[in-house]
Amino acid sequence: MDMRAQADSLSPRPSFSDLFTPKLVTVLREGYGLARFKADAFAGLTVAIVALPLSMAIAIASGASPGAGIVTAIIGGFLVSALGGSRFQVGGPAGAFIVLVAANIARHGYDGMLLATFMAGLILTAIGFLRLGTYIKYIPHPVTVGFTAGIGVIIFASQIKDLLGLVLSGAEPGPILEKLPALTAALPTVNPAAVGLAIATVAIILGLRRVRPHWPGMLIAVAATAVAAALLGLPVETIQTRFGGISGSLPLPSLPAVSFEKVLAVLPDAIAFALLGAIESLLSAVVADGMTGRRHRSNCELVAQGVANMASALFGGICVTGTIARTATNVRAGAHGPIAGMLHAVFLLVFLVVAAPLAGYIPLATLAGVLAVVAWNMMEKHAITTLFRTSRADAVVFLATFLLTVFRDLTEAILIGVVMGAAIFIDRMAKMISVEQHRAFVEADKADDSNGGRTAFDPGLASDPDVVVYRISGAFFFGSAATVGAVLDRIADQHKALVLDFSAVALLDSTAATTMAGVARKTSGRNVALYIVGATPRIRHELQTHGLGSGAARYFAHLDDALAAHRATA
User: Fold this and answer.
1) What are phi and psi of 228, to 5 degrees?
2) Which of 125, 395, 514, 522 fits as disulfide partner to 306, beta carbons 3.0 to 4.6 Å?
3) pTM for the full model?
């Protein structure tokens, strides 16, 4: 058996069913009784109460109708839970998508957004089936914190108009640098009633969070301010006055308008939707894992997100993703499995059928207050403070991602942030490499019992002047290959053997292997024997592939084995 086959046998690849069986199937196989159903029903109702006002607010901020937000939560939420790879994930419209969806609708219209959402679903499904979900976790933490905080700023800026009840002379600009001057010019039109409702909404939500954290603060705030506005006859804009109310039934599914030109036009947005959806959903699943001790199936989760987005687009909804707030609420409410998320969608459907006419009384200033709280929550204050306190480089990555998100483009911010984070990581790993010279023992009995009877490194003991030993520690890759090569190039001609200890090398890439091939050529030209000890099967295979076969170097498991072999041939 060759080394590659041996490595594969030690870590067998998971089967298709291991990766893509929905958690719903797993939970049902474990046994599902009435007690667990009651727990899931209570959790689903709790999440639905939270999701109802939030879904409408997110849809309105995205440039869609409030009904589209509820439809998204119903269709997308049901499918994410039914098909997903997390026991507790709850899907629906998310605040992180407001920026992208609003920009897409402004450029391509609502049909363009539906097509981009459907295409994003296809992309997410493909990412899942290609098993690429594992790589989403490589988004650096400063990048995630940066674009999340940037989105929070943009969401808050998008709500200033409704928070203050402003009347703009024209359409509200999208870019923040154009939006702020337009809002400033409209300040004389401030509506005190709208301001009062927004302040009351925020106060109720934050107040209940402190004194009654388990109460549905958002729904209570929305209901209380809507009743107050109706009873007092306050002159504020409502869902009814702007959107004409909400339909009490689901729309019939239909395909969005498709043409080759339209597909090409919305493709960048579809990719952005898919990328952000994958990041958000897997982050949410990780949070749920941390709260419950369970493990999600990332690729299965992405397939479910893809199906949910395609279905949402067919029913006229917006982008779907797993949401941290609703998922955490689901866990805290005592959910047992995915049926809680499915029931949350069923409860929302009941709310839509029964209470749709009442939603028309909700003031837009109230929903703006809800989103102001959401925007504030997206600013991870503790994480930002920690970044600035612990790492200047990570703080730079955060600032770059944050500023690019606010003033340029979310996709551009993520890409540049990832590149910067990768460059910083490479620099850190390159600096961790060390090449230490040690002296080899003359006598084989100079062994260290604590090292299993093997020769220990101690430059202070008697040594063999004909043998030079270097121990390489850390990641030996393209970022550190030049450093190691420069040290090894200084091999003195008087030595008869060079021993390289790879036992502390964590990884080795082709650049490092090529560097080692160059060292082997130099030692061969100087009639210096080359010994490599402690290399793992994978590292040894990489070295041999790049020319360090048995003719160029001899391999041993331990240092004293190499020294004994050298003395035998000396």
Assistant:
1) -60, -45
2) 125
3) 0.77
